[in-house]
Amino acid sequence: MARVGDEGGTAGPARSAGVKDVAARAGVSLGTVSNVLNRPDRVSARTRERVEQAMAELGFVRNESARLLRAGRSSTLAYVMLDATNPFFTDVAQGIERAAEQADLSLFLCNSDQSAERERVYLTRLQEQRVQGVLITPVDPDEPLLDEVVRQGTPVVIVDRVRDVDSHCSVAVDDVLGGRLAIEHLVDLGHQRIAFVGGPERIGQVRDRRRGAQAALADAGLPADALVEVRTEALTVSEGRNAGERIAGMPSATRPTAAFCANDLVALGLLQSCVGLGLRVPDDLAIVGFDDIEFAAAAAVPLTSVRQPRGQLGRRATELLLDEATNPDHRHEQVLFTPELVARASTRRS
Amino acid sequence: MARVGDEGGTAGPARSAGVKDVAARAGVSLGTVSNVLNRPDRVSARTRERVEQAMAELGFVRNESARLLRAGRSSTLAYVMLDATNPFFTDVAQGIERAAEQADLSLFLCNSDQSAERERVYLTRLQEQRVQGVLITPVDPDEPLLDEVVRQGTPVVIVDRVRDVDSHCSVAVDDVLGGRLAIEHLVDLGHQRIAFVGGPERIGQVRDRRRGAQAALADAGLPADALVEVRTEALTVSEGRNAGERIAGMPSATRPTAAFCANDLVALGLLQSCVGLGLRVPDDLAIVGFDDIEFAAAAAVPLTSVRQPRGQLGRRATELLLDEATNPDHRHEQVLFTPELVARASTRRS
DNA sequence: TTGTAGGCGTTATCAG
DNA sequence: CTGATAACGCCTACAA
What we know:
- The structure is a homodimer.
- By secondary structure, chain A is of the alpha/beta class.
- Chain A folds into three domains: 3-58, Orthogonal Bundle (434 Repressor (Amino-terminal Domain)); 72-174 and 310-338, Response regulator (Rossmann fold, 3-Layer(aba) Sandwich); 175-309, Rossmann fold (3-Layer(aba) Sandwich).
- Chain A is 43% helix and 16% strand.
- Chain A is built from 13 helices and twelve strands.
- Chain A has helices at 19-26, 30-38, 45-58, 64-71, 87-102, 116-128, 144-151, 175-188, 204-219, 237-248, 264-276, 294-297, 310-326, and strands spanning 76-81, 106-111, 133-136, 156-159, 169-173, 194-198, 227-231, 258-261, 286-291, 304-307, 334-337, 340-342.
- Chain A has a six-stranded parallel sheet, sandwiched between helices. A six-stranded mixed sheet of chain A has the order 7-6-8-9-10-12, sandwiched between helices.
- In chain A, strand 1 (76-81), helix 5 (87-102) and strand 2 form a beta-alpha-beta unit.
- The longest helix of chain A is centred in the last third of the chain and has 17 residues, at 310-326.
- The structure holds a DNA duplex.
């Protein structure tokens, strides 16, 4: 079968030129081309130029598959995100990207969009592509495929979740402490009846943040029923709105004077619907969110929130991943960052 | 050199088993394993099970590089995003993802983060990986590498930008019309002095949206200086805040009564700082954004915005890409969607 | 169904 | 620097 490399300089839509086409065109040996590509120093400047010119003329594009087939492992990382439309995760992704770039690795983002099935598909593909490593915020940290993947030799770091077992590195934030901070802040402001807005129960964060909230209430000497449960089906803006309607609908005598939301999306939805229904924030209802996404600060009533070091999370996770990928006596590590309360107008004392 | 496949069922951390290991373990021929993988119907149910079990036991993971080396083209798409932290683009990405999934293709997201350099790196890598095709919202639609990539045989569709030349398919929204809609709405409400908030100039959208705004003003019989330029350095929330401070600082006699922002991020920042500085929205300043991201509707003063069909953009772009990748007599197409004004409280007549 | 052979494009090695 | 050659792991085809 005919190959490429004929038709003069008038760059025809050639069907992919290979190293040997380049060699032929430059009038050098195949090995030399390879050297230009991989050890440019071993080749005289003049021949190198000739080769490079030939590459340009032919529109040579390295075939990564072939390269990889020999090399064994690619130089890309992947982050399998739980929800690409949640700014929290895109900020984490940005932290990862920066760290990856420094290590001269490319990052591919994959969006599982909360689907365990899609998550599995991505994990499998990434494995098949022999990526250097995978960062993931899993739908379920106990997903067995995660262990499978490491067993087959692809490092995996879990981001923003923790696992009891230490088969992976993980990087997360102390959610229990975060819950504490939120409630302590509200109690300091004099609130004695506080809604906890979040769900579903299966999300570990929701449980932990509530746990911290309960502990803080107890420490403050308030009864357990000072925390009013307002359940959501998901941690989304629209569920937040929904919860807001329920809260606004309560008789003002029993209505909580403050709400602690399991994340900022919920808090923003809540804020919107409460304001829309005539509640004043923070006077009638103080609101605390969680994550401190950029839109929390940018709300028309800027939102008090528990800040997670989003970029840091990504950066540290990447460091752990790279260590696992390159350091033969790597030890798994569970990093826990400390959250921080950022007070804004949504809880301002009036 | 010794290979794998010994040590009993107790899944040791084997160093990657290949098809022939599987064949040996299952006691079948290599060809049969390959058939199980690629044409399961050609193999009896019983042998197939045996093979599948062997795969499971050995933790066999297909080597995509080898597969690809033969196949020529992978079954993944990539979307090179301009800014992964802008919800507009993540919504577009979601549309792409859905369409890709239907076609049984995986999608990798790459974030150029407005850097032409990073964009180039990604494009090159994707080409090297022989992806089926690339969707991209480019930093600069005239980037020559884009043409290079198509010439080498990788289909490219441009998303949310247009190019004069028709060397690619593209999908975008009529920004000039969008600008018109925004201004017509404000003029209908009686505004006669309107700020246009956006920049930098090099962004095509900014120019087009302003152009539409100017045209609408002219049609309404208002003088050109009814549109007050408020420049930003970027289309971000913080630049929006900045612009807000400048507007709020104007003497109320000459201050515009309304602002049309080049996107929602700017609008949200503007909204926040104006409210913070004591301006009432919409009474003292009406605000219109562009994109209609979810957070626009969720603002405490819900934002009027020019909606782009974000998911549709992604979906249509993917369809074009697939056509280009598979249909031999594909014709490039420039799709232009029609935007739509969504009126909310930030322009409500008081 | 079985074996086996050849090739995908790149890299590495080794003697000249 | 050349030229030749052997991997890398998988897929297809072909003859049994």
